[in-house]
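Translate structure to sequence.
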């Protein structure tokens, strides 16, 4: 007896598609989900200057978001405009995704404003727990303060969220920092297709 295939609608929200490793992996993943029969939608927060080939059959939504949503410092106090939150929630309401993946890195900040099966896909090191060593007391204080604030905002942003990492080292480091009651951590190993 053949098992029925469950088709899901997967929404990827990404900072931009100018190029780079994280963006290439995201687009390849979206294309492969589409190939196996899932509905896939990709929403870049910055749709200007796209340098990647977007397949015509991929649902690609270009919305005009304020630049502040995809720029600045990630691990600092950030304000997200109500109008941008409303745009994202309208997209989610319209397409009713089964899975929402927020990808590297400013898209993570939307996780506090949306509901559903939301996962944050971390493609690289965001928080460095080590501090630069110095004998200068002023530099030591500055580095201590930077490290303290980075850790504080990292925990605020990711604690209690579903997280996907690209390797076990990131998973181990971030699990150590975060309290994962009722949420999940998943490591997605990179698969490289060498057949081309």
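Result:
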């Amino acid at each position: 007896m053949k098992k029925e295939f469950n088709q899901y609608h997967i929404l990827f929200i990404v900072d931009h598609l100018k190029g780079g490793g994280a963006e290439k992996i995201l687009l390849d993943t979206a294309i492969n989900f589409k190939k196996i029969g899932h509905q896939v939608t990709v929403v870049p927060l910055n749709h200007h200057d796209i340098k990647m080939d977007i397949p015509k059959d991929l649902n690609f939504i270009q919305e005009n978001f304020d630049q502040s949503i995809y720029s600045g410092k990630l691990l600092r106090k950030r304000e997200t405009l109500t109008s941008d939150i409303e745009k994202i929630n309208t997209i989610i309401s319209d397409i009713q995704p089964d899975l929402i993946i927020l990808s590297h890195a400013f898209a993570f900040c939307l996780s506090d404003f949306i509901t559903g099966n939301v996962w944050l896909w971390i493609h690289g090191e965001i928080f460095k727990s080590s501090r630069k060593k110095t004998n200068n007391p002023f530099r030591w204080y500055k580095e201590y303060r930077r490290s303290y604030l980075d850790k504080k905002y990292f925990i605020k942003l990711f604690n209690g969220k579903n997280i996907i990492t690209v390797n076990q080292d990131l998973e181990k480091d971030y699990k150590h920092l975060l309290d994962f009651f009722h949420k999940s951590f998943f490591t997605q190993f990179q698969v490289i297709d060498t057949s081309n």
